[in-house]
Amino acid sequence: MLTARNLTKNYSNLQVLKGVDVTVNKGEIVTIVGSSGAGKSTLLHLLGTLDTPTSGEVFLHQENITRLKGKALADFRNRHIGFIFQFHHLLPEFSAIENVCIPGYIRGHKKAEVKERAIFLLETLGLKDRLDHRPNQLSGGEQQRVAVARALINNPEVVMADEPTGNLDSHNARELHQLFFSLRDQFGQTFIIVTHNEELAPLSDRQLVMKDGRIV
Ligand code: ADP
Ligand code: ADP
Q1: Helix, strand, coil percent values for the chain (each to nearest 5)
Q2: CB distance 189 to ligand 2 below 6 Å
Q3: Per-residue pLDDT of the chain (216 residues; tens, 9 = 90+)
Q4: d(CA 30, CA 193)
Q5: Right CATH number for 2-215 from 3.40.50.300, 3.20.20.300, 3.60.20.10, 3.40.30.10?
Q6: Rounded to whole angstroms, how far apart are CA atoms 207 and 67?
Q7: In sequence order, which residues have a C-beta less than 8 Å from that of residue 59 and are 6 or more positions away?
Q8: Is the ipTM above a cut-off of 0.95?
């Protein structure tokens, strides 16, 4: 479903990706591991169209998504890709449900439908009693689950997660990671997860090990 061909990325004279080929199948849960500086985040950002490669291409299905720009790029991302980061990046002045709804409103779905789906997702993620809480009224694990619901609101085909458990204690980290599997099983989503968590990284369909700008 998602294919990258011969990706390179240079920052001035530093080559941080040195020719990466990768294919991810629909519904697959892939973890990307490797030491700090190996190029994991850079690769995830290129796969998620958050950044453009110096050379090489990324395809979703058969569509070359490498050179999308402006509104076409923003629309593509909003439609097809969900993002989860180490820090939840929820908007502090909005409630949990409002945070989850925003990408759906931007997408242009009907407000009532977006809200219904947001409630469904938050309930699925065990946050039924937290809909109207602001982020600072939620625990770290709850905040991150709200961020997961937000990533899923537009029913993206791929969810890209950069150290999603990095700010959680081991219990919450394990629960969040298991949640990715149950979401995949329920909705068929594909997850690509960069992680340093040595306990959770092997719990995936496939681990990609990066070293010095390459998948080894
Ligand atoms: P990882 O996620 O495996 O820790 P990164 O992809 O974040 O690795 O970084 C790979 C290398 O690229 C590192 O040496 C990092 O310092 C460098 N790098 C990342 N982003 C930039 C940037 N915007 N400008 C310059 N160098 C960068
Ligand atoms: P299109 O954008 O082609 O009209 P749809 O809006 O019918 O497509 O739905 C595309 C995907 O978004 C579907 O898989 C559906 O599950 C999901 N979806 C539909 N309605 C909503 C909604 N109100 N909020 C979020 N996701 C939705």
Answers
A1: 40, 25, 35
A2: no
A3: 999 999 999 999 999 999 999 999 999 999 999 999 999 999 999 999 999 999 999 999 889 999 899 999 998 998 899 999 989 899 999 999 999 999 999 999 999 999 999 999 999 999 999 999 999 999 999 999 999 999 999 999 999 999 999 988 999 999 999 999 999 999 899 999 999 999 999 999 999 999 999 999
A4: 6
A5: 3.40.50.300
A6: 28
A7: 2, 3, 4, 5, 65
A8: no
Q: Which residue type, as a one-letter code, is found at position 128? A: K
Query: 114 alpha carbon to ligand 1 midpoint, in Å?
Result: 36
Per-domain residue ranges for the chain? 2-215
Give CA–CA dist 91/61, Å, rounded.
32
CB 67 within 8 A of CB 76: no
Ligand 1 lined by 37 (C-beta under 6 Å): yes
Closest atom of ligand 1 to 11 CA is 25
Q: Any idea which ligand is nearest the CA of 152? A: 2
Separation of CA 32 and ligand 2 centre (Å): 29
pTM beyond 0.90: the answer is no
Q: How far apart are CA 214 and CA 190, in angstroms?
A: 22
Strand-pairing partners, residue 82, are 159
Half-sphere exposure of 62 (CA within 13 A, CB side): 0
Q: Which of 16, 20, 32, 40 to mutate to test the pocket of ligand 1 (most atoms within 8 A of CB)?
A: 16
